[in-house]
Every structure is written in structure tokens, then in C-alpha cells.
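pls design
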């Protein structure tokens, strides 16, 4: 057996962690996870933690799920990987049918890749190429419209459409130009208005921008209903529907980034179902394999797909594909995950849990430093503020969000903040007792750090 206690040293010596200031990491005491079971993760010392963020928003059916494990074992005994370049395979074909079944009705074709970022790259490249091939009347349609503070991934293309200054500004010279609409943020309205008296001014403003740039724009990409990484920012009802209509009227393809919101996270299979949106393309990743293996898919309409058909020498092929595209193990896992949704009636089963969650979230308002609570389904953010009346934030260098999650850790809960927004996103299979523990730990941790 490996000497588990040595692992922390090995990690510090050799591993460069994502989104992490390594000088802090090297100083701090870190948790090394050894195993998982249901909604719990266990470190090498056997200490249990509730996985309060579903291992970065991916886990659905719990860790070490016997049925997912079995599906993987079955597939592994057949074949683990053969390429999708020039070959088909069994599970990726079956999965494609299942994805089309559950997706918005407008979508008919599945293009696989392996991360949320790549699913976005694919949507952008396809939108661009689609209009290039559509004929001279569309020759100016080259630009992408995206929302302020959006997060679509870390590759150069997805960063170009992203709008998070902290992560993205340094790379500006490498990025392509993007047109911006303002994502609604009712707690700190960028237009200084108040919902619902505003009459959705933000949507009107977006409409103007889309109309103005339609002639030079191939697509608009947006996180429907809630922006994740920017701080769990929810949109007011009706905004998404309005964006959809304006895109349709102006021949701008609507790309929905459901990487974070897909697979039941918001209480429906996809967030776009809350407003019956019919996109031209949709990106999915995080929850697709139930949180087991990296996989992503970008779904398209028949019309877009048909725009790439032609004689080989006409150069209308979509020359794009990642090596592990359509991998069998990931596909088999994703199929089983979708079967578990059905078998366990998961989307219905979480409805009472969501009501309970909403109530527990409301209880947090008794803490003075809780400025805003935003959630949809089992996806929530708690924005902590220094002064509730003025909405003044804490100084960045106080690292309040970080301190809260360290407190939570000591109390047996793993969460990760976005600045001073505390993210709560438990696996969909969490039961209401464990939810109570999770939320009381968060309550105590916020109280300990801020009051
Ligand atoms: C996480 C995320 C991505 C990027 O996914 P990766 O798998 O990390 O590349 C893209 N869009 C949204 C909305 C996300 O939350």
C-alpha cells in the first residue's frame, strides 16, 4: 500500500493547482481526499466531509455510486477507448439519442468533446463557420455577443467570450473582440434600477445592442437563468425569453451555456426549461457523467448541421475534434447517469428538497453580513457584505469568503467561494437531514468569521 501520509508532501512538491495562488497552498495545511461515499468525501486520515459543492458542480448521484461503478466495469471489459474520428462506437451513439431526447426540442445533433471550455469553443467555431458557408448575404456575421461577467471556460476562445476581469483581463491581447450585453444583477443593478419597477430595462438595453450589431454578429452566448462563476447571479423572469426572441428576429444564433446548470441542477433537467427556450446550440459538460469522468457535448439544430454538408473539396467540413471525443467509458457513465435520473425519479424527488433548501437559505438572512441570497434549484450563492444597508463589500485582502470555507472545513463541510459569495451546490441525492447539517455548518462558519 502507498504511504498515504506522504501524499501531501508529494502534492506540494510536484502539483500546480488550478485557480490557486501556490504560495498560499504551500504554506497551508491541505486536505488530501482518499475516497468518497454518497455525499461524503473522506481524507487520508479518515475524516468525513459533506461535499457541499458537488466536487466543483459535477456530482449528481453521489460518490462511489454502485450503479455507475458497475456500468463502468461493464464497459471497461469491452473497450475503454477507440476514436470517433472515422469510427463510431456503441455507447456514444446510444448516449447521443438520449441527450437529444432530454434536450430542448430544437436540437438534433450531438458533437462530443471533453470539457465545458471545449464545448464552448465548438459552439463558437460552428456558429462562425455556419454563416461563412451560408452565402454572401451573411459574410459580415463574424462577431459574438456575450454577457458582462460571463464565464464560459479557460481556453482562449471561451475566455474571449468570458467577462470576468479577475481571470481574463491579463490575456486581453490574445483574445478576439466580443460585443457585450449587460447581464442582469438585480442586487446591484448596473442601471441603478429596482426590479420589478424597472420593467426589465436590462432586456430592452440588450435588445438594442443585439439589433444594432445583428448584421455583423453570428451568435450570442449566455448562461441561461443563472451565471455561475461570476457569483451565482440569477436573471429576472422574462429576460431569457426576450433575448431568445430578439436573437430569432435578427438571425443571431442563440448558444446556451448549460455547462453548470444542466442535468437537474436548477430543478429541471436544463435551466432553459424554466422559460421554454429553444436554442440553436447548447453546451453541456459538468454533470453529464454524474461527476465521474470528463465529457462534454455541444448540441445543434438540424439547420446548422445541414449547413456543413457539401462535397469534400468544397471545404465545408467541421475540422475540429479532441482526441478522446466520444470516449466509451465516459459515454457509458453518462448513459447510466441518465438512467438513474429516470429510475430514481430524481427530478421529482428533489422538488421537496428544493423547498426545504429555500427555507434554510432564508434562515441565513438573520446574519447581518448576508447581503443577498440567490438560488435556483440546488444551485445557490450567498453574497456576504460588510454593511447590509449600503451593500458595501468587504476589503478583498480580508479574504472573507476564503476564511468562511476554512471554518466550514474544520466543521466537516467542503465548499468553495467565489470571492465573498459562498457557493452551495450539493449533489442532487443529498437527503434533508444532511442538508440541515450542511446549512447549519455554513451558518456557523459565516457567523464565526464575520460577526
Ligand atoms: C465550468 C464552466 C465552464 C467550463 O467548463 P470546464 O469543464 O471547466 O472547461 C463553462 N461554462 C460554464 C457556465 C461553467 O460553469
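designed seq:
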Amino acid at each position: 500500500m502507498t504511504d498515504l501520509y506522504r501524499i501531501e508532501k508529494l502534492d506540494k512538491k510536484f502539483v500546480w493547482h488550478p485557480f490557486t495562488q501556490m504560495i498560499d497552498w504551500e504554506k497551508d495545511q491541505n486536505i488530501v481526499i482518499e475516497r468518497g461515499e454518497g455525499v461524503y468525501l473522506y481524507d487520508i486520515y479518515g475524516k468525513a466531509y459533506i461535499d457541499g459543492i458537488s466536487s466543483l458542480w459535477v456530482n449528481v448521484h453521489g460518490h462511489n455510486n454502485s450503479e455507475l461503478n458497475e456500468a463502468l466495469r461493464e464497459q471497461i471489459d469491452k473497450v475503454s477507448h477507440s476514436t470517433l474520428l472515422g469510427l463510431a462506437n456503441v455507447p456514444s451513439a446510444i448516449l447521443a439519442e438520449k441527450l437529444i431526447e432530454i434536450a430542448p426540442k430544437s436540437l438534433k445533433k450531438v458533437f462530443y468533446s471533453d470539457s465545458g471550455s471545449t464545448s464552448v469553443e465548438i459552439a463558437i467555431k460552428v456558429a462562425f463557420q455556419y454563416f461563412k458557408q451560408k452565402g454572401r448575404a451573411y459574410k459580415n456575421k463574424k462577431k459574438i455577443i456575450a454577457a458582462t461577467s460571463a464565464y464560459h471556460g479557460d481556453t482562449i476562445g471561451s475566455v474571449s467570450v468570458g467577462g470576468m476581469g479577475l481571470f481574463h483581463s491579463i490575456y486581453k491581447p490574445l483574445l478576439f473582440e466580443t460585443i457585450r450585453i449587460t447581464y442582469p444583477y438585480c442586487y446591484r443593478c448596473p442601471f441603478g434600477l429596482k426590479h420589478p419597477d424597472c420593467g426589465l430595462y436590462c432586456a430592452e438595453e440588450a435588445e438594442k445592442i443585439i439589433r444594432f450589431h445583428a448584421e455583423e454578429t453570428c451568435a450570442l452566448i449566455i448562461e441561461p437563468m443563472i451565471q455561475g462563476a461570476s457569483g451565482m447571479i440569477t436573471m429576472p423572469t422574462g429576460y431569457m425569453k426576450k433575448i431568445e426572441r430578439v436573437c430569432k428576429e435578427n438571425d443571431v444564433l442563440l448558444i446556451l451555456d448549460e455547462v453548470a446548470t444542466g442535468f437537474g441542477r436548477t430543478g429541471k433537467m436544463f435551466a432553459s426549461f424554466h422559460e421554454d427556450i429553444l436554442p440553436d446550440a447548447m453546451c453541456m459538460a459538468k454533470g453529464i457523467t454524474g461527476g465521474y469522468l470528463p465529457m462534454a457535448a455541444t448540441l445543434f439544430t438540424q439547420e446548422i448541421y445541414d449547413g456543413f454538408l457539401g462535397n469534400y473539396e468544397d471545404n465545408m467540413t467541421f475540422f475540429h475534434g479532441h482526441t478522446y471525443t466520444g470516449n466509451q467509458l465516459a459515454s457509458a457513465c453518462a448513459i447510466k447517469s441518465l438512467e438513474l435520473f429516470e429510475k430514481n425519479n430524481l427530478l421529482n424527488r428533489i422538488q421537496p428538497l428544493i423547498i426545504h433548501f429555500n427555507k434554510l437559505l432564508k434562515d441565513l438572512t438573520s446574519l447581518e453580513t448576508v447581503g443577498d441570497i440567490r438560488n435556483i434549484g440546488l444551485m445557490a450563492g450567498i453574497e456576504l457584505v460588510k454593511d447590509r444597508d449600503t451593500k458595501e463589500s468587504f476589503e478583498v485582502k480580508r479574504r472573507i469568503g476564503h476564511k468562511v470555507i476554512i471554518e466550514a472545513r474544520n466543521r466537516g463541510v467542503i465548499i468553495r467561494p467565489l470571492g465573498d459569495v459562498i457557493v452551495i451546490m450539493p449533489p442532487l441525492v443529498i437527503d434533508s437531514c444532511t442538508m440541515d447539517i450542511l446549512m447549519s455548518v455554513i451558518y456557523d462558519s459565516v457567523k464565526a468569521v464575520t460577526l
